[in-house]
Amino acid sequence: MSQTKVKKLTPEQAALIPVYREKWRAIALSTGPIDRSQAAETILLKMTCPNTGFVQALRVPPEVRSAKEAIRWVNWDINPEKFSVQT
Question: How far, in Å, are 10, 33, 65 from residue 36 at the CA level?
Fold first, then answer.
């Protein structure tokens, strides 16, 4: 599953940034009840930075079925075997 890398936003896309920022801010700060059926379908990739210990969880498409496939998806289809450790 590959993605197309966006190199520059169109003026229309740039104009929507404040709209989406507010949408996701409202979702993040929401204290309302969750939709359990939607939450059950959410697939997350949990990653931990080996240098800082920072833990990050990213949503991936529901058709992703393995951690390796999820890593490829969030890293623009780069095989995790090709990653290098930077110190």
Answer: 35, 9, 20
Q: Which domain holds residue 44?
A: 11-80
Instruction: Express each pLDDT in 29-78 by its tens digit.
Output: 988 888 887 777 778 888 888 889 999 998 888 888 888 888 888 888 88
Q: Report residue 11 as tokens.
A: 């003026």
Domain count, the chain: 1
Whole-model pTM: value is 0.45
Outline where DSSP puts E strands in 7-66: 43-48, 55-60
Domain assignment present for residue 61? The answer is yes
